């Protein structure tokens, strides 16, 4: 079939053939979408996919990076790292640091969110408290580390107020608990802000109906507030587990994993293998194991988000 269309002045446009099929139009739209996404996809491939594949490859070799002729050793690196007492010490410290921090973040964040959402506090005090409670979230990790190192120094303000001379960050008995406290102080505002937004989105009709039914404040909390906040709480817990288990900067800038290995985390353990001992094969193996543990939590988070949607 041939169609002839006249366009002024005396110009002919001849269109021959059948209209484009639906599949062709879909392919054209998909091609346009991927063309717009291509810069981001290329960056992700170069900066994330390629390094991950290289690290996984290094974990099955020996004498990598510094040696021009690496040797394939199979699973020997994994056997060595899993039988290393230092790795398990770092794993135990990471579990204590992570679980304690996440639990405290939830309790403090929810408590302060309930306080700021209460009608018992006026508008001006509420605004002041919000600024004070969010303050730790405004500092970078470096500032937080330097700040607390100064506060907890033997001649710092904390020892002055307590009238003691304790080495908070250098004591084998106190160092792990101290860095955990610092991380709790730095991380609870994220929970507080997220849960406060969730509290403000709960319909007041639910509380009114519970009050009419004779529910006490405690019953209203457990039967109205907690079920309404459950999706947000689960998402926050999973995200915080991933972030806290990979905390490096705070530990490195406060204790460096010491004294001895009291505050050694999986992140600092892997870093020292690579850049202190220059054992990149074992460092890659440790990094792959950390990646596998993080992926388990990430899969749980994605499944929760899909179920929530």
Describe this structure in words.
The protein has helices at 22-58, 76-82, 85-117, 123-138, 141-151, 157-162, 175-200, 204-212, 217-245, 249-254, 266-275, 280-308, and strands at residues 2-7, 11-16, 61-62, 71-72. The chain is mainly alpha-helical and 309 residues long. The strands form 2 sheets. A two-stranded antiparallel sheet has the order 1-2. It has a two-stranded antiparallel sheet with strand order 3-4. Helix 9 runs antiparallel to helix 12. Keywords: Cell membrane, Membrane, Transmembrane, Transmembrane helix, Transport. It comes from Microbacterium testaceum. Belongs to the binding-protein-dependent transport system permease family.
List keywords for this structure.
single chain; 309 residues; mainly alpha; MetI-like fold; two-stranded antiparallel sheet; disordered N terminus
Helical run tally: 12
Shape: globular
Count the beta strands: 4
* Main β-sheet description: 2 strands, antiparallel
Task: Output the CATH homologous superfamily.
Answer: MetI-like
CA distance, first residue to last residue: 49 Å
Please sum up the structure shown.
71% of the residues lie in helices and 5% in strands. With 309 residues, it is mainly α. The protein has one domain (77-308): MetI-like (MetI-like fold).
């Amino acid at each position: 079939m041939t169609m002839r269309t006249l366009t002024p002045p005396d110009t002919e446009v001849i269109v021959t053939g059948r209209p484009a099929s639906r599949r062709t139009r879909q392919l054209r739209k998909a091609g346009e979408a991927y063309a717009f996404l291509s810069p981001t996809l290329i960056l992700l491939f170069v900066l994330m996919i390629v390094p991950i594949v290289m690290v996984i490859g290094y974990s099955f070799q020996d004498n990598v990076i510094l040696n021009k002729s690496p040797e394939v050793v199979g699973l020997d690196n994994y056997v060595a790292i899993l039988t290393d007492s230092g790795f398990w010490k770092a794993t135990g410290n990471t579990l204590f640091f992570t679980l304690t921090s996440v639990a405290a973040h939830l309790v403090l964040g929810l408590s302060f969110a309930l306080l700021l959402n209460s009608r018992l506090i006026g508008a001006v005090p509420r605004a002041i408290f919000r600024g004070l409670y969010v303050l730790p979230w405004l500092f970078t990790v470096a500032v937080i580390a330097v700040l607390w190192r100064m506060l907890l120094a033997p001649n710092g303000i904390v020892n002055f107020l307590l009238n003691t001379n304790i080495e908070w960050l250098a004591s084998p008995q106190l160092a792990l608990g101290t860095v955990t406290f610092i991380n709790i102080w730095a991380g609870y505002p994220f929970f507080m802000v997220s849960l406060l937004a969730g509290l403000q989105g709960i319909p007041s009709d639910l509380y009114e109906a519970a009050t009419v039914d004779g529910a006490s404040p405690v019953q209203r909390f457990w039967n109205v507030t907690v079920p309404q906040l459950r999706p947000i709480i689960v998402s926050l817990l999973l995200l915080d587990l991933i972030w806290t288990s990979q905390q490096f900067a705070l530990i490195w800038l406060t204790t460096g994993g010491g004294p001895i290995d009291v505050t050694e985390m999986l992140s600092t353990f892997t870093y020292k293998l690579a850049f202190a001992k220059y054992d990149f094969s074992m460092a890659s193996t440790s990094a792959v194991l950390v990646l596998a543990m993080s992926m388990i939590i990430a899969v749980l988070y994605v499944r929760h988000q899909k179920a929530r949607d």
